[in-house]
Amino acid sequence: MNRNELTIDPRQIPEQVTRLITELVEAGYPTYLVGGSLRDILLGRPAHDFDLATAALPEEVRRVLSAYSIYPTGLKHGTVTVAADNLPIEVTTFRSEGTYTDRRRPDEVRFERTFAADAARRDFTINAIAYNQYEGLLDPTGGYADLRRGVIRAVGEPRQRFAEDALRILRALRLAAELDFTIEAETMAAIREAAPTLSCISAERKAQEFRRFLVCEPRVLRRLWPESRSVWGEVLTPIGAVSPEWWESITAAFAEIGGDFIARLAVLLISIGISSDAEDAATLRRQLILSNNEWLWLKSLLEAHNEEYPASRYELKLLVAEYGYKLLREWMRIESAMVAAFGGSARSRAEGQPAWKELSRRLDELEEAGECCTVAQLELTGLDLIELGMKPGEALGRCLEEVLEAVIREEIPNEKAALRRWAKERCRGLC
């Protein structure tokens, strides 16, 4: 969309939102669509999480909208959530705010009667615009002009905005990346100055912002890095030292690998020399609040990076036994992307090796041939070993692994009778 032609198409606003605005306005309470959903509609982006700001107090909202299910999701701050035909819509009373002792939430909230008073306490001008079908756009802070120019600017005094809520620091960087905007100079200076105060923000909130930042368009990440890397270094210490030149190669690998967060994180960690067993990796796991499944997948990708290139079919089968087909394919995608982006400098042994795409072809052939590379493919099961006299437990698992290794080495065929004979002889000591 041409930013010089930002307009509201009423058809982009859900009928339920328009209906609530109508009912509150006709009851005498000025009410507007506000926040990120309005910003995204103006930019022609998909809109979610619709928020209304109103002159009505929470009890007045409940009275006027009594036909709907209403939930008191934030009464202290004047917010209720109205369920209109299964669409949750937050309705918040115009408010101004007092001091922020914890740099996250206001100590005091004062309800106001105008949107202009409400807009003055918001984070960025592009989020301080309001609209309804009666008055059109209300823009007391100049947010519409900033939207057209593609600028993130704090409302009022930037240092005060970030002193109130330190999470706004990361939100500004993330919004600039998602929208491909620039950050106004005074706002950026205040961000860098306030970055150390991010220590008072929970790891969960910081991790959410970093996740959304890292999967943005690589070209935009590259542009924003010189001015934002010291800030992200306050969140994840090791990445603060990544130079703009090295970041350029990292983001080139991002462009090759696509938008998956864990894949990009693996590229980033490999690029700065963090292995799966490094103390930094464990710290990053805590800082990014990775789930167990995410961590196990990331850890395996980092471990696979240290594997020797499988020159032979036998070596490739051993890797399949260790990691499985799905993870190996992701590993190959990552290695291929990094070789393309770094020219081999990120992985010295990549030089002179067959293309990673060729290795991927070999892996496909191996899987299509149905050759036994995993315990699940063995014609021998745990029940077979129990019939041979083994007891369930770790020893049984070790026996299956030994059988698999023998099959991969082609010492025995993957046939039940042969496998039972081999296991009975070789695993006798494990019974």
What features would you describe in this structure?
The chain has helices at 15-26, 35-43, 58-64, 115-119, 143-149, 158-164, 167-179, 185-194, 203-214, 218-235, 244-257, 261-271, 279-288, 292-305, 313-323, 325-342, 356-369, 382-387, 394-408, 416-426; strands at residues 31-34, 51-54, 69-74, 79-84, 87-93, 95-97, 109-111, 130-132, 136-138, 151-152, 182-183. It has 431 residues and is an alpha+beta fold. Strand 8 (130-132) and strand 9 (136-138) form a beta hairpin. The longest helix has 18 residues, at 218-235. Residues 345-352 have low confidence and may be disordered.
Average pLDDT number: 91
Which percent band covers the strand fraction?
A: 5-15%
Strand order across the largest sheet:
3-4-5-2-1-8-9
CATH architecture of the largest domain: 2-Layer Sandwich
Through-space gap between termini: 70 Å
Task: Please tally the helical runs, counting DSSP H or I stretches of 4 or more residues.
Answer: 20
Could you tell me the number of beta strands?
Answer: 11
| CA gyration radius, whole angstroms | 29 Å
Helical content stands at 40-55%
Helix-strand makeup class: alpha+beta
Poorly predicted runs: 345-352
CATH topology of the largest domain: Beta Polymerase, domain 2
CATH superfamily of the largest domain, by name, is Beta Polymerase, domain 2
CATH class of the largest domain: Alpha Beta
User: How many independent structural domains?
Assistant: 4
**Largest sheet: number of strands, sense, barrel closure:** 7 strands, mixed
| Apparent shape | elongated
